[in-house]
Amino acid sequence: MFFSADLKMQFPLLTAIKSICYHNKNIHFHLLNKEYPEEWFDWLNQKLALLGSCIENVKIQGNFAENHHLPHINEATYYRLLIPTSAAEKALYLDCDLVVNTDLLPLYQTDLGDNYLAATVDGVLNYTDHCYYEFPDLKPYFNAGMLLFNQDKWKREGLVEKALAMAGQYNFYYCDQDLLNALCLKRWLAVDPKWNYQVAAEWGMPAEGNIDYDGYADYLKTKESVPHIIHFTGPHKPWADNLQQPFREYYWFYFRLEWQEIFARHGLE
Hints:
By secondary structure, the protein is of the alpha/beta class. The protein has helices at residues 10-23, 38-49, 105-108, 151-156, 159-169, 175-183, 213-220, 248-256, 259-265, and strands spanning 2-4, 28-33, 54-59, 90-94, 98-100, 117-121, 142-150, 188-190, 197-198, 229-231.
């Protein structure tokens, strides 16, 4: 399992990891980063070892600082483009501004077939006009906060190299998410939105334009039960402001969770 983050996101990242560990064991985490010290990994690995898990320090050497990014999205978002260079047959990537509420094994066991990756539709951009002159058709459009990579396909078709070339050539507004949608157009598998419910869909829809209101309404039905993965998309985060977005209480539950409570849930008292 892969994350990418800078030090500013260390507390949301730890909250995401605790949420995963509350429901899962035997996880090999990888953190793509430039800044985290070895002591941070030593401390966390002492906790994870009791759950049969570990976290690996994957230092990024490339420079993505010149690539376009939004105020709430920084250079670290581009690190995930390098994930398919790892040895695993499949690689599950998660953003660090989310929490997990279930066993992730059924998601990981998804049959990818010949698709480049599995993802969920974006709760806003899939239902609105969003494209570029060079890429006039980006539908269906996925959110990149949860990606299950088909590593073999990426390696055999040289997709990492193609992605890095596109990152240098195009100035995508939504950064590498747009890039990945252009690269994987019609070659990705849509899984149930409950595997990446984006809370900003509640308020992110434009007031006008060519909008698929029926599809958007169906997407919002995902929140009628607690999603498997709750993704706090957009600039408003439960740890940064008081906006009453859906499911913010789940972030704070996992944030406050003590490691001893996680161990006890797995019978490790």
